[in-house]
Design goal:
Structural class: alpha/beta
Distance between the termini: 54 Å
Number of strands: 8
CATH topology: Spore Coat Polysaccharide Biosynthesis Protein SpsA, Chain A
Strand content: 15-25%
CATH architecture: Alpha-Beta Complex
Largest sheet: 8 strands, mixed
Length: 289
C-alpha cells in the first residue's frame, strides 16, 4: 500500500468501563498476522475515562482513541465507522481477543461474496464458567437456526462482524436508539439482508470471548436481550411472531446433540435464559405503553 492510501480494514471496538478486558483485546490486535499498514484500530470510549493501562496498550497497538458521551454501543460503532479510513469495518467487542489470522480469514470470506459482509465464529474463552458457556451455546444455536440457507433473516453478532464501510454508511449504520447491547445487531442484519446484500459465515475467523458471568449477570444479560427484542419490534413497527415449538425443543436438546459437557445443566440454563428473555421483553413492552 502506498503512503497515504486507505487500509483494507478498520477495526472498531466500543468500550465502557472494562479496561482490563480492553487491554487484552488490544494486545491480541497487536499480534494479528495481517500487514500492519493494511489495518487500523479505533477504540470508542462510551462515556468512559481513559485508563492509563488502556492508553499504553493503545499506543502499543497503534490504536486511536475516540470519545463520545454515554449513548451506547450502537452509537459508538457508528462513530468509529464514520471516522474509519478502511474499506471494510471489522467490529469487535472489548472483551474479545481475535486469533492471529482473524483478518486474513475475514478477507477470504469477503472476497468470496463481493459487496457482502462476513461474520466470524466466536468461542467462549472462559470454559470453566458454566454461565459464560451457556451464553455462547445459545449464540451457537441461534447462528445455526437463523443462518440456514433458507433463512430470510440472518443473524450475526457485533463482536465478530465485517461489513464494507461505504455500504454500511449508506444503510445508516446501527440504529442508535438501541442504547444497550441487544437487538441492534439483529436489526442491522435484517436491514442489510433486505437491501439485497449478503453476509457469509466465516467459521475460521475466530475471536475468543471472555465474558465473565455469574448467575445474576447471566439472568440480567438475557433479561436485557429481551428488552432489546421489544425495542426491535417497536423500532421496526412490527408485531412479534413467536418461534415454533420446535425452536425451543431443539434449543433444549442442542447440548445433547452437540455432546456438550454438563449437558443437563446446560439445557437447564438455556431454559432459564429464555425465561429471562421473555420477562425482559414483557417488562420493556409494558414500560413503553
Amino acid at each position: 500500500m502506498t503512503a497515504g492510501a486507505a487500509p483494507r480494514f478498520t477495526i472498531v471496538v466500543p468500550t465502557r468501563n472494562r479496561p482490563r478486558q480492553l487491554v487484552a483485546c488490544l494486545e491480541a490486535i497487536g499480534a494479528l498476522r495481517y500487514p500492519r499498514e493494511e489495518h487500523e484500530t479505533l477504540v470508542v470510549l462510551d462515556g468512559t475515562p481513559i485508563h492509563p493501562d488502556v492508553r499504553r496498550a493503545a499506543e502499543r497497538a497503534r490504536a486511536r482513541l475516540l470519545y463520545q458521551p454515554a449513548t451506547g454501543p450502537a452509537a459508538a460503532r457508528n462513530l468509529g465507522a464514520a471516522e474509519a479510513r478502511g474499506d471494510v469495518i471489522a467490529f469487535l467487542d472489548d472483551d474479545c481477543a481475535p486469533d492471529p489470522d482473524w483478518l486474513r480469514e475475514l478477507d477470504s470470506a469477503l472476497a468470496a461474496l463481493p459487496g457482502g459482509g462476513a461474520g466470524g465464529r466466536t468461542l467462549n474463552a472462559l470454559t470453566d464458567n458454566r454461565y459464560s458457556s451457556a451464553s455462547q451455546t445459545l449464540v451457537d444455536y441461534l447462528y445455526e437456526y437463523y443462518n440456514r440457507e433458507s433463512a430470510r433473516e440472518p443473524l450475526f453478532t457485533t463482536n465478530n462482524l465485517a461489513l464494507p464501510r461505504v455500504a454500511f454508511l449508506e444503510l445508516g449504520g446501527f440504529d442508535a436508539r438501541f442504547r444497550r447491547a441487544g437487538g441492534e445487531d439483529r436489526e442491522l442484519c435484517l436491514r442489510w439482508a433486505r437491501s439485497g446484500r449478503g453476509i457469509a459465515y466465516a467459521p475460521r475467523a475466530i475471536v475468543r470471548h471472555s465474558h465473565d458471568l455469574s448467575l445474576r449477570r447471566f439472568l440480567r444479560q438475557h433479561f436485557n436481550y429481551g428488552r432489546g427484542a421489544a425495542r426491535f419490534h417497536e423500532i421496526r413497527e412490527s408485531s412479534p411472531i413467536p418461534e415454533p415449538a420446535s425452536f425451543y425443543r431443539e434449543l433444549i436438546l442442542y447440548p445433547w446433540r452437540e455432546r456438550t459437557r454438563g449437558r443437563a445443566r446446560m439445557s437447564a440454563l438455556l431454559t432459564l435464559s429464555q425465561a429471562a428473555n421473555v420477562a425482559g421483553y414483557a417488562w420493556e413492552a409494558r414500560r413503553r405503553r
